[in-house]
Amino acid sequence: MSKLYVLFEHAAGYGVFKVQEFEEIGMLLPQLEAAVHDLARFNSVVELVGFSPFKTAIAALESINAISEGVLPEDLLHFLDITVPKSKKKNKLTLGVSDPKLGAAITEALGIQCSHVGAVPEVIRGIRHHFHNLVKGFTQKSSAVAQLGLGHAYSRAKVKFNVHRVDNMIIQSIALLDQLDKDINTFSMRIREWYSYHFPELVKIVPENYTYARLAKFIKNRKELSEDSLEGLEEITMDSGKAQAILDASKSSMGMDISVVDLLNIEMFAGRVIALADYRNQLSEYLKTKMTDVAPNLAKLIGEQVGARLIAHAGSLTNLAKYPASTVQILGAEKALFRALKTRGNTPKYGLLFHSTFIGRAGAKNKGRISRYLANKCSIASRIDCFTEQPTQIFGEKLRQQVEDRLKFYETGDVPKKNIEVMKEAMEELEQETAHNKSEKKKKKKKHKLNETSESVGENGVDQTTNGNADEAEEPPKKKKKKNKQEVE
Question: Cα angle vertex 98, ends 92, 99, to 5°?
Answer without folding.
Answer: 100
